[in-house]
């Protein structure tokens, strides 16, 4: 699946995964945009 994503999409996916693992919930839209 990761092979089909753009560089930015991969970055966002990894950010979401990291935030869920550390905080227990996903990032805000603002955090994704940063």
Features:
0% strand, single chain, mainly alpha, 34 residues
Biggest β-sheet, characterized? none
Count of individual helical segments? 2
Strand content: under 5%
Query: Helical residue percent?
Result: 55-70%
What's the number of domains? 1
User: How far is it from the N-terminal to the C-terminal residue, by CA?
Assistant: 24 Å
What is the succession of H and E elements? HH
Give the overall silhouette.
flat
> Average pLDDT value?
93
What do you see in this structure?
- The chain has 34 residues and is mainly alpha-helical.
- The chain has one domain (2-33).
- Helices cover 65% and strands 0% of the residues.
- It has helices at residues 7-23, 29-33.
- It starts with 6 loop residues before the first helix and ends with a helix.
- The mean pLDDT is 93.
What's the arrangement of secondary structure elements?
Elements (H helix, E strand, L loop, with lengths): L6 H17 L5 H5 L1
Task: Give the structure's gist in a few sentences.
By secondary structure, the protein is mainly alpha-helical. The protein has helices at residues 7-23, 29-33. It is flat, with a radius of gyration of 10 Å.
């Amino acid at each position: 699946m990761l092979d089909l994503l753009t560089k930015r999409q991969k970055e966002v996916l990894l950010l979401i995964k990291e935030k869920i693992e550390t905080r227990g919930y996903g990032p805000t839209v603002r955090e994704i945009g940063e």
